[in-house]
Write a structure and sequence with these properties.
The structure is a homodimer. Chain A is mainly α. Chain A is 72% helix and 3% strand. The first copy, chain A, has five helices and two strands. Chain A has helices at residues 3-10, 14-22, 40-54, 59-70, 80-126, and strands at 29-30, 36-37. In chain A, strands 1-2 form a two-stranded antiparallel ribbon. In chain A, helix 3 (40-54) runs antiparallel to helix 4. The first copy, chain A, starts with a helix and ends with a helix. The structure holds a DNA duplex.
Chain lengths: 127, 127
DNA sequence: ACTAGCGTTGACACAGGCGTCAAGGTTTAC
DNA sequence: GTAAACCTTGACGCCTGTGTCAACGCTAGT
């Protein structure tokens, strides 16, 4: 299949597919007229990339998964490189969540305080 | 005080201060030679901006706080605009935390599954 | 008078994953 | 034969808060 069809099937754009190729994640054969030619295995690669990007991985992080799939494995996650990325991401997520929760507490406290102050101002105006 | 001193006291750079001014968050008087001249109230403004940026607010979000302080209030948070931003941010944070926790569960499951698969592969090689 | 260290404005650079346009070649359908 | 709908590469734009450099002016100390 050609790039437009692959993009459609994978739910993305031709621009994105060329971008992945430019970064070594996708390799296309070329037909005699220079058009890129893809098959089902490429569709699986792109779907793997897309689903990882969707949950917040960056392109570089998807590389081990792509290579894992290309090496013939059934899933992209079962290779050491992928497992390492997953572990790192889990730790990243925990750190990120903890930071956001700390910020949430700060904002919540600030909000409660501000509302209180504002109410006090209001009551002084009314009285 | 001049811009370098203010930057130092506020723990930021002259570049950042000029940027805030460019976006209408900071207004400097000018001395006869064209130098910006600041006072203590400007320092408080900059500190407010910095602390909000640090917890993940963007510059636009700091505007109500700055205007609140400039209107003579004791804190930047006690004006309606600031309170509204705080409320929005709290909701944003909740949404963000929930999404990250959902992603965390996905990654955790994926990781457990991948490790299991890898172990199975390993055992098959050993046996 | 000269240097060091401040200040001024203007402008480019970055990160990341594309969107989008330009200028052209190919193929297909009518 | 020509228009529509593909494809190609190349390159700029975006967004955000600065870092950094250029080229220049002011001021203080020696």
């Amino acid at each position: 299949m050609r790039i437009g069809e692959l993009a459609e099937l994978a739910g993305t754009s031709t621009r994105a597919l060329r971008y992945y190729e430019q970064h070594g994640l996708l390799a296309a054969r070329r037909t005699s007229n220079g058009y890129r030619e893809y098959d089902e295995s490429d569709l699986r690669l792109v779907r793997e990339i897309r689903s990882l990007l969707e949950i917040g991985f960056n392109l570089e992080d998807t590389r081990p998964f792509v290579e894992c799939l290309r090496s013939g494995r059934a899933t992209g996650a079962e290779c050491p490189g992928s497992i390492e990325v997953l572990g790192r991401k889990l730790a990243d997520l925990d750190g990120c969540i903890a930071r956001l929760q700390a910020v949430r507490r700060v904002v919540e406290r600030e909000l409660a305080h501000a509302v209180e102050e504002a109410a006090e101002l209001e009551s002084r105006i009314v009285s």
